[in-house]
Design brief:
The chain has one domain. It is 84% helix and 0% strand. Helix 3 packs antiparallel against helix 10 and helix 8 packs antiparallel against helix 9.
């Protein structure tokens, strides 16, 4: 079971998710840079150990929440998606990645509509996060990060669709954890060097480069999905054709076999040439008596 879980396909998905989080660092700083900067500046500069412990605790909670979300959606995909539905889910994940790349590069912001859908759940969670402010201990930072991981984010939703396409709870959770680890460098740095890092990551050239790479990854995902679907259809067609040929061959050889195994009927001419046993015996006796008399 462990070998099936840690398959080469899963390793490729984990590395892809990590790269996705790494490339989306500029977007993460924009979404989470404010809260991490607030956590960092709330601790005096001379207390570096405490500052790092709070920042790390917050990010551990945030990444853990990604894993929990991924596990839930992966289990849902495992129960609901199979066969052709799995290909559709992977195709949707690739299209969302392309949309995310356009959003990161600031070429098209249509993905913000998807973020609005998550805002309904965030209305219930945001007050819980506010109660933990100001953060005075690593434990409160851990809880805050666990809540902040549910913040409506197009990049997270794109990664979540990619994780759900794994159609397995554990695999989807692993993909989201890898994605979260990919976002860690940018978010950590955003808490320590908020303004300078934000200016760097918000530059048009760097955003275009990162967005372009995400678009390429999304297009690659779509291409692989379509190739896999076409290969599956070709395999099914070949299988049906082979079964049809085998059935036709079986029908063709069965009558011949039956004829070969049947008892051959004698011809009418052969029947006429057959001498009855009694007559043959009588003729033999007459010939014997004739020779005896001589």
């Amino acid at each position: 079971m462990f070998e099936s879980v840690m398959s080469p396909e899963l390793w490729a998905a984990l590395l892809s998710a990590f790269a996705m989080g790494l490339l989306g660092g500029g977007h993460c700083v924009g979404m989470c840079g404010g809260i991490t900067a607030a956590l960092s500046f709330a601790v005096p500069a001379e207390k570096r150990v405490r500052r790092w412990s709070i920042l790390l605790s917050y990010n551990i909670g945030r990444i853990a929440s990604y894993g929990i979300i991924g596990g839930l959606f992966g289990y849902l995909g495992q129960q609901l998606i199979s066969g052709q539905g799995l290909s559709i889910m992977r195709l949707l994940a690739g299209l969302l990645l392309i949309a995310m790349g356009l959003y990161v590069a600031d070429w098209w912001r249509g993905l913000t509509r998807l973020e609005k859908l998550g805002s309904y759940a965030w209305r219930w969670l945001q007050p819980l996060g506010k109660r933990l402010m100001p953060v005075s201990s690593p434990s409160r930072a851990l809880l805050l990060g666990g809540i902040w991981g549910w913040l409506p984010c197009g990049l997270v939703y794109s990664a979540l669709a990619y994780a759900m396409a794994q159609a397995q709870g554990a695999a989807a959770a692993g993909v989201m954890l890898a994605f979260g680890l990919g976002t860690l460098p940018a978010v950590l740095a955003g808490g320590l060097f908020a303004e300078r890092l934000k200016q760097l990551l918000q530059s048009r050239g760097l955003r275009g480069l990162m967005g372009g790479l995400i678009i390429l990854f999304g297009a690659w995902t779509v291409w692989l999905t379509l190739q896999h679907a076409n290969h599956g259809q070709h395999t099914d067609h070949s299988s049906h054709s082979q079964q049809g040929n085998q059935a036709g061959s079986h029908e063709h050889h069965t009558p011949a076999a039956a004829e070969g195994q049947g008892v051959a009927e004698p011809d009418s001419d052969d029947i006429g040439d057959v001498v009855p046993a009694e007559e043959s015996a009588g003729d033999s006796m007459d010939m014997h008596e004739h020779h005896h008399m001589h």
